[in-house]
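Thread title: Can someone regenerate the structure for this chain?

I was given the following input by a collaborator and told the matching structure tokens would be attached. They weren't. Posting the sequence so someone can regenerate them.
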Amino acid sequence: MPTMNVNLTPALACCSGDPSFTPDGEHIVYWRWDGVEEAIWMMNLDGGNQHRILATPGGADPNVSPDGNTLSFRLGLAGTENGALFRSSVGGGGVAQVTPFNDISIKHDWAPDGRLLLFTDNADTGDPTDSTNIATIRPDGTGMRHLTGYAGGHVNVFAGSYSPDGRWIVLRYEDVDRGTFSLYRMRADGSNLKEIAFLGDLKPRLTDWGPRAAGDGDSDD
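Best answer:
Regenerated them for you:
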């Protein structure tokens, strides 16, 4: 039976987007711009109880930690392309900066155990001799680590998400010289980089790993 598409958000002066489910599957957090204010909002799965959590100028991609207690999101630095990851309580209190301001991409993800945030650093530098790389950081802002180390602008990689078991990361691999894109995966420590699919000039964005199906094995292939 066909599934009916339902508009969960009301007509706005502009838009709403970047939705993600809370870990309990009961709510959706999302970014909203009404022509006056950019903010993070939350609603029930049916679109009910829509309420503003906090204003986020230049903000995007709200995500809730696996334990349901912490909200992470990107904030832009006014007048620049730079952005940084921030965190707060799910209710919007206790806002704190997690990463330094650099060109952090919109898409980021929580490790399934909640110990790390995955993100893309130097995402739109504008310098063709520089490369984009994938990094992790603890939610308290310590322990930042680059998982890839490309340089020279020939290859760019963009973080997607962790696999449900936390062992793998899916990512976009861009061969700048050829102008082509692929989906890759790598270990959560950055090792064992492997192509999943060559996509030619099709550029995947905001990639997420699907839920683990019953009976899936733990193959390392």
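The longest strand covers residues 155-162.
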